[in-house]
Design brief:
Blueprint lengths: L2 H25 L4 H11 L19 H23 L5 H16 L1 H5 L6 H23 L4 H29 L3
Helix pairs in contact: 1-4, 1-7, 2-3, 6-7
Length: 176
């Protein structure tokens, strides 16, 4: 296989990785209550626990206690919101749509990575913006720092394939 064919294949693989990541991330924004219930069961969170009190956990480590307390608080908030203000979940439906639309945009680089390499730059910019956005707005909204780091990881892990694809698209454009 010649170098250009390898570059095209690698770009296609990483672009699909990015698209699938966007689709999964978007899809998880819709069933929040089911997801938090699953996590709560996995971490043995007592659904009836006070949102600010330590939740029942099979582990007594400080990290585990902090995670279970956070999950209990989130589960309580989601349950109360679903019961009293279900229309607020419409915002996460639109968040999901945003992910889906961005994923569709990356069909362009799948078809022609050289002509559409600007989308890789767009992807890198978007991934870079995830970090300050998560750190700043997470702090404003009272999200624990460790959770904000998880959110930041999406930007970091998304940036790498975008950077590689951009680099390879430039290489594809130049004569070998």
């Amino acid at each position: 296989m010649d170098r250009k064919a390898v570059l095209r294949r690698n770009i296609r693989i990483l672009t699909w990785f990015f698209i699938i990541g966007l689709l999964i991330s978007g899809a998880t924004a819709i069933p929040l209550d089911a997801e938090i219930s699953l996590l709560a069961r996995w971490f043995h969170v007592d659904g009836n626990a006070n949102a600010n009190a330590p939740a029942g956990s099979s582990s007594s480590s400080p990290a585990s206690t902090e995670v279970t307390q956070w999950l209990s608080r989130v589960q309580t908030a989601l349950t109360q919101t679903k019961q009293n203000f279900p229309f607020l979940f419409y915002g996460t439906d639109w968040l999901a749509l945003g992910h889906f639309v961005i994923a569709v945009a990356f069909i362009g680089p799948l078809r022609d990575p050289v002509r559409n390499r600007w989308l890789f730059v767009f992807g890198m910019i978007a991934c870079t913006l995830v970090v300050p956005y998560a750190l700043i707005f997470g702090a404003v909204r009272g999200i624990p720092f460790w959770w904000r780091l998880i959110d930041c990881s999406f930007g970091v892990f998304g940036f790498v394939p975008m950077w590689l694809c951009h680099k390879w698209a430039i290489e594809l454009e130049s004569p070998l």
